[in-house]
Amino acid sequence: MDEILEKVEIEELYQHILNVEGIRNPINTPEKLNEVAEYIKSKLEEYGLAVSEHHFKIDGFDITFRNIEGYIGNGKDPEILITCHYDTVFNSPGANDNGSGIAAMLEAARILAKEKKELNVRFVAFTLEEFNPTKIKKSLEYGKEIGLIDSNNRFLTYNTVKLVRDFNRLRFKLLSKGRSLTETYDQMLELDLDLTPQEKKFLEFIKELYSDDSKATWIGNTGLIGSSRWVENVIKKGKEIIGVINLETIGYASNKKHSQFLPPLINPLFFPSYKINPFQLKGNFISIVADKNSKKLAREFSKQCRSRKVKLPYFRVRLPLKFETILKFFADTMRSDHAPFWRANIPALMITDTANFRCPFYHTEADTIDKLDFEFIRKVTQVTIASTIEMLR
Question: Which end of the chain is more exposed for a tag (fewer CB within 10 A), N or C?
Answer without folding.
Answer: C
